Amino acid sequence: MRTHVGEVLALFREHGELSRTEVIDLSGLSRSTVNQRLGALHDAGLITEIGGGESTGGRPSSRFALNRSRAVILTADIGATGFVAAVCDLAGEPLRHTSRAVNVWEGPHPVLSLVDEAFDELLDGEEVWGIGVGVPGPVEFAAGRVVNPPIMTGWDRFDIAGWFAPRGAPVVVENDANSRAVAEARVRRHDNLISLKVGTGIGSGLVFNNSIIRGGEGAAGDIGHTRAAIADSADGLPCRCGNTGCVEAYASGWALIRDLELDGREVVDVAGVVALVRQADLGAVRLVRQAGRILGDAVADLVSILNPETIVISGQLAECGEVLLSGVRERVYQRSQPLATRNLVIGVSDLGEVAGVTGLALITVDRILATAAIDDLLERVDGAAAEPGLSRA
């Protein structure tokens, strides 16, 4: 009976409220089969009856929707100098969240211990169905581990998924830029999107045809460690990854802090860079605008090759607004194909600090509610109390 249950559930995740008739039309299944599927989903508490629809002469038809409060997803978006942890519903909406300062280079044990503490503080007795963790480094997605991360000292191949396994829920480990890209694509309802995270480091996530482009090993889109165009005219600056001439060595938060300190400014973090820009400090404005041009050079070829609808920028340096964006736009429009930029929108994210945890929740829900995984989930929740009164007629 459960064959294709996940496909029926996916209709509610995509379309929202649906009647039986609409499910039949969208799925192509028979009425009796749809009734069986709806019954199984309702018994598991995954859909809820929300009242009558329009009547065509008889009794009003029932309508159903995803029961987004059936369980929760724990998510943690870990950056170089801090993380945001959240409890999210099954639609990816953060219900409660908190942020903490950390130094990711201190290693996985102290950082993940703080994440665990934050999860415990945020939970309010809800049933946890999944855990999503975002990290600022290349991720071997299937294994749930980071591989050779440039700024994550001590994290190489650390079993992040295994750390959270005692919580008894599936664990998804994802690159932080990918999770932000998913949030931006779903919330904005834009397909074909490039998301740039520009903070202490630089990351890029690609969502095309409603899917993350990870590549064969999970390294797709990592423009921060491609060669900067500016490096071709001089000896390349050293990057924290061990190479020279990387985009990150010129346009990241840590590179800007370095350059501002060399120019006599006292800047200890990326927030200090943003503060100087907001104060119209000429040196800071010049450097951030130049960083935007370097980012624009780096992403211009991606625009020509992939033809995105949108480039959205998040992270602390995105708070520099038009100072950064003007440089990105200048180089993208100069260097990319005219047809690829004709309707291209380049802007700053408006999701704030919950962008990463929202995307992680959506990616985690995609996994646990996938057609191939739904049988296992329903086995786990069989016998759970369901809302009474669902008629299968």
Describe it:
- It is a single chain.
- This protein starts with a helix and ends in a 12-residue tail after the last helix.
- It has 14 helices and 15 strands.
- It has a five-stranded mixed sheet with strand order 6-5-4-7-10, with helices on both faces. It has a five-stranded mixed sheet with strand order 13-12-11-14-15, with helices on both faces. The chain has a three-stranded antiparallel sheet with strand order 1-3-2.
- Strand 12 (about 200-210) and strand 13 (about 210) form a beta hairpin.
- The protein folds into three domains: about 5-65, Arc Repressor Mutant, subunit A (Orthogonal Bundle), CATH 1.10.10.10; about 70-180, 2-Layer Sandwich (Nucleotidyltransferase, domain 5); about 190-350, ATPase, nucleotide binding domain (Nucleotidyltransferase, domain 5, 2-Layer Sandwich).
- The protein has helices at about 5-15, 20-25, 30-45, 110-120, 160-165, 175-190, 250, 255-260, 270-280, 280-305, 320-335, 340, 355-370, 375-380, and strands at about 20, 45-50, 60-65, 70-80, 80-90, 95-100, 130-135, 140, 145, 170-175, 195-200, 200-210, 210, 310-315, 345-350.
- Helix 10 (about 280-305) packs parallel to helix 11 (about 320-335).
- The model is unreliable at about 385-393 (pLDDT under 50).
- It has about 400 residues and is of the alpha/beta class.
- The longest helix has 25 residues, at about 280-305.
- Belongs to the ROK (NagC/XylR) family.
- InterPro entries: ATPase_NBD, ROK, ROK_cs, WH-like_DNA-bd_sf, WH_DNA-bd_sf.
- This is ROK family protein.
- It comes from Herbiconiux sp. A18JL235.
